[in-house]
Amino acid sequence: MKTISAEGGKLLLLVLWLQSVPRGHGCPAMCVCYSEPRPTVACQQQGLPSIPAEIPVHSQRIFLQSNRLTAVRSTSFSSCRNLTVLWLYSNNISHIEAGAFFGLDKLEELDIGENSDLRIISPTAFRGLSRLHTLHLHRCGLSELPMGVFRGLHSLQYLYLQDNHLLTLHDDTFLDQANLTYLFLHNNRIKIVTDHMLRGLTGLDRLLLHQNLVTFVQRRAFHDLGKLTTLFLFHNNLTELSGETMAPLVSLQYLRLNGNQWVCDCRARTLWEWFRRFKGSSSELECHVPLAGKDLKRLKLEELEGCYDSWRLPEDGGYGRARPGETPLRAPVPRCCLQDMDKSSIVSSKGLPNSRQITQHPPKAKENISKTKAVETEQAQNGTHRKHRLNDSPSGALSTLSNSMEPPGLSGELEPSSNPSGNRKACSEGPCLKGHGSVTRAPDLRFIPVVLLALGFC
Ligand SMILES: *[C@@H]1O[C@H](CO)[C@@H](O)[C@H](O)[C@H]1NC(C)=O
Ligand SMILES: *[C@@H]1O[C@H](CO)[C@@H](O)[C@H](O)[C@H]1NC(C)=O
Ligand SMILES: *[C@@H]1O[C@H](CO)[C@@H](O)[C@H](O)[C@H]1NC(C)=O
Ligand SMILES: *[C@@H]1O[C@H](CO)[C@@H](O)[C@H](O)[C@H]1NC(C)=O
Ligand SMILES: *[C@@H]1O[C@H](CO)[C@@H](O)[C@H](O)[C@H]1NC(C)=O
Ligand SMILES: *[C@@H]1O[C@H](CO)[C@@H](O)[C@H](O)[C@H]1NC(C)=O
Fold first, then answer.
1. Of the bound ligands, which one is closest to the alpha carbon of residue 118?
2. Is there a domain that residue 341 lies in?
């Protein structure tokens, strides 16, 4: 009896062993190995605490996702020279040894996403992966990417960096990524899109930068993105974006810029003009000030006259301010407020309600307001004295503005029922049409109703 049960035990062990090696030789415990369509080792969702030691060297695909892995050793995959797909996502990897992927020069897809304790990537982690076309690094707790980390990845097409804590990206991080088509950077903490951050991305199709903390996009940031079709910058902290910045995006079709804090004054003018030429589709751009809630794209050019006094925003406004001595993220006094020579021509041509720029894209049902504003702006031309008065005023410009700029019906979409004279009053007494140095403001505001009457509005 004893012998028989011992024999049975051995047999059982043999059966278990055979089960763990379904096909071929040397399949690691807890894994399933198969050879069609390609030699594959599948070890996902096994609660593995570490990468199995005996992965067959001829493996082309290794699935290790959803285990409890904490580290990738330099020897973990070093003999699998034919590896093309490596999935390590949804583990608890906090350390990837230098050289962990060295020599895997056939690797095409590497997924390390959802290892939120990873935090650090070695600058040389991906060296030599010249065939890599997809790299997942999302939700890895990364706050920084080392300089040159993507160097040599000439075949990269899809790069997923979303849901990290990235604060910034070094210049030329993507210099070798001319083949990149998707760059996902959303849900990070990027504050400035710098001139050289996106350099080299000449093939980029989709750039997702939403849900960051972007306050500013430097002027040449999109210079190489002539193939970009999709740009998401929604839910950031943009107050302005110049038309010049957008100009290189000649292939753009889908644009989302909602959920920012747009300042709809003279600073928005070049963007507004860029939208006249833009043929794709875009989200709304809700103005934050001074025409709160209105869609920047749908404003009349006249409504962008003047310079909203951003210095007078309350401290929690969170933008547009810079203490003396501090380097501001953008020019504290907008350039458009300092250059008036070109403005005078715009102002004078604007007196004509049907100037070409306006009729090309007539926003519906706003004729009256725009005419009104045209009059006001002419009134507002000599703002020198007014400016001083506003700056000296103890009551903040914002309170003046918010009291007067949001009469019922003006805070949301602009409706035909909007009261033009309410808007006019707000602008002539508020700071949004503040002077521009050399321009002239008619001293007597009583003039306005007369003009309005003459135009048949009252
Ligand atoms: C790798 O692939 C090549 C060509 O397909 C093959 O000749 C070689 O034997 C493979 N190496 C291993 C270790 O399986
Ligand atoms: C992940 O690893 C860390 C140590 O690196 C440990 O504290 C944590 O509990 C682990 N999390 C899970 C879900 O296993
Ligand atoms: C894009 O990838 C292809 C194939 O992987 C490669 O031959 C080519 O050199 C890459 N292009 C650039 C600009 O690196
Ligand atoms: C920045 O943007 C976020 C999301 O759009 C918003 O919730 C937040 O209030 C903004 N911060 C400031 C300082 O404007
Ligand atoms: C403009 O005002 C005139 C007269 O006050 C009125 O008849 C017309 O409907 C108004 N147009 C719009 C678009 O509000
Ligand atoms: C603006 O007003 C001041 C004082 O009233 C005057 O000296 C100046 O010439 C005016 N500027 C323009 C451009 O009309």
1. 2
2. yes
Interval between CA 366 and ligand 5 midpoint (Å): 9
**Beta-carbon count within 10 A of 89 CB:** 22
The three-class DSSP label of residue 226 is coil
pLDDT of amino acid 309: 67
Instruction: State the residue range of the domain holding 354.
Output: 335-455
Residue whose C-alpha is closest to residue 188's, from 206, 210, 164, 160: 164
Ligand nearest to the CA of 262: 4
Q: How far is residue 333's CA from residue 316's CA, in Å, rounded to a whole number?
A: 19
SS3 6: helix
pLDDT at residue number 371: 37
Distance CA 139, CA 348 (A): 54
Ligand 5 atom nearest to CA at 457: 5
Tell me whether residue 119 is in a domain. Answer: no
- 426 found inside a domain: yes
How many domains in the chain?
1
Q: State the amino acid at position 292 in one-letter form.
A: A
**Residue 400 CA from chain centroid, whole number:** 33
- State the average pLDDT over residues 55-73: 96
For residue range 252-272, list pLDDT tens digits in order. 999 999 999 999 888 899 999
Residue 220 lies in a domain: no
- pLDDT, one tens digit per residue, over 332-384 is 555 555 554 343 333 323 333 332 222 223 333 333 333 333 333 333 333 33
CA distance 111 to 104: 14
